[in-house]
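STRUCTURE:
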């Protein structure tokens, strides 16, 4: 696809991707053209998904942290576009988790990026936010103008804080900023920490194919988006938006329950008579929102549409992860 941003082709742009070794980032740098620099501290990923691109010098990789302001200030010089994907990947709260982590990485890290943009006159940013900012919404599907936003988790609160920092900087300093609130993004790869439901269930079944623990009651109902559709939506809608600062939901119009996901995975692994166990309660963990379906009519009105629905995205991701993991377990 011939990706552009406001009339300038990405192939002619200098692009910085934060979190570029992660699930979305590693797939994004394979899809988009341009002079791409990736910064990632590898806290929840490995270099493997992008090693070939680094070795062939198609991208430049910097092992670094967005909390390192002086490093960010240095590497944002001359950049045309920042695609900001870096975040604390472990979204769940548990008693031993430091409550400062989400705020530090997701909110302060985003401030560091925006201040670096200001100092180096970088004019464009694309940001990966989350559907979690809506909290326990009483309007399903949930549109971008829903409010008030009352996050249920520290992760969601930090993402909402990051949105505020981005939009305020953009308005004051005349940046173009495009914020995307993602549904659950699924892919052929997964994070080493904070993994989502698909690799979680697959890894459990590889360990013991006779039984499967499911967090919550299995009725959690959400939409899922395949990573290629997510990337295409971010770039396409940033270019097509009529505003300099805009927010879009990226997801699917359908949804799928955790029980249905478990069934798909069991089918794809060719397993029989698997006993399902539940931890109980409507939430999978503290801060989980059991039903999340985004209203994507705004994105659809600009001509974007995902190629795969939620069930197709889940099955495709499951197939690919199972194939890759079975090679390691064989």
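SEQUENCE:
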């Amino acid at each position: 696809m011939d990706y552009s941003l406001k009339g300038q082709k990405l192939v002619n742009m200098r692009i910085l991707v934060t979190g570029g070794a992660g699930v979305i980032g590693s797939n994004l740098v394979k899809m988009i053209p341009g002079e791409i620099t990736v910064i990632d501290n590898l806290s929840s990923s490995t270099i493997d998904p992008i090693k070939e691109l680094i070795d062939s010098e198609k991208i430049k990789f910097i092992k670094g942290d967005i909390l390192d302001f002086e490093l960010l200030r240095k590497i944002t010089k001359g950049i045309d576009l920042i695609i900001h994907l870096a975040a604390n990947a472990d979204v769940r709260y548990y008693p031993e988790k430091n409550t400062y982590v989400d705020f530090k990485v997701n909110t302060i890290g985003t401030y560091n990026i925006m201040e670096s943009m200001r100092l180096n006159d970088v004019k464009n940013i694309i940001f990966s936010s989350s559907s979690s900012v809506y909290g326990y919404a009483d309007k399903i599907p949930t549109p971008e103008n829903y409010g008030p936003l009352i996050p249920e988790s520290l992760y969601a609160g930090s993402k909402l804080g990051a949105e505020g920092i981005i939009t305020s900087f953009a308005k004051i300093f005349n940046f173009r900023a495009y914020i995307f609130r993602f549904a659950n993004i699924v892919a052929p790869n997964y994070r080493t920490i904070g993994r989502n439901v698909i690799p979680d269930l697959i890894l459990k079944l590889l360990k013991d194919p006779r039984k499967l623990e499911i967090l919550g009651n299995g009725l959690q109902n959400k939409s899922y988006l395949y990573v290629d559709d997510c990337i295409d939506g971010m770039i396409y809608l940033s270019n097509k938006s009529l505003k300099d600062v805009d927010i879009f939901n990226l997801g699917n119009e359908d949804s799928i329950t955790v029980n249905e996901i478990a069934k798909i995975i069991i089918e794809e692994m060719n397993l029989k008579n698997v006993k399902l166990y539940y931890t109980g309660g409507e939430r999978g963990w503290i801060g989980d929102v059991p039903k999340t379906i985004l209203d994507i009519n705004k994105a659809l009105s600009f001509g974007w549409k995902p190629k795969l629905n939620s069930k197709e995205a889940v099955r495709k991701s499951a197939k690919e992860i199972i194939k890759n993991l079975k090679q390691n377990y064989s």
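REMARK: The two ends are 37 Å apart (CA to CA).
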